[in-house]
Input
Amino acid sequence: MTLSRDQVRHVALLARLGLKDGEEDFYAEQLSHILEHIDRLGQVDTEAIPPTAQVVEMRNVMRDDVIQPSLTQEEALANAPEARDGFFVVKAIQDADPG
Output
């Protein structure tokens, strides 16, 4: 399948790519070769291959949740530069008055 310059411009527009003058011919050739490879894949007999959405077996690699002792609120706040009412005090990332 050979793409025309207009088709390349259309694909570039959809992909929000800016093409310089004369690049249409270059990309038409490149994209045409890619489409030829895809056509070739369509000729492969896949009748005996079951459909799959994931080719690599997936498994959960996270550990089980186990309740363990943790820091108390006081211990967690012990090294904080500033704490108030049981919470960390941090600098504001936005001005209170953006005006």
The chain has a mean pLDDT of 89.
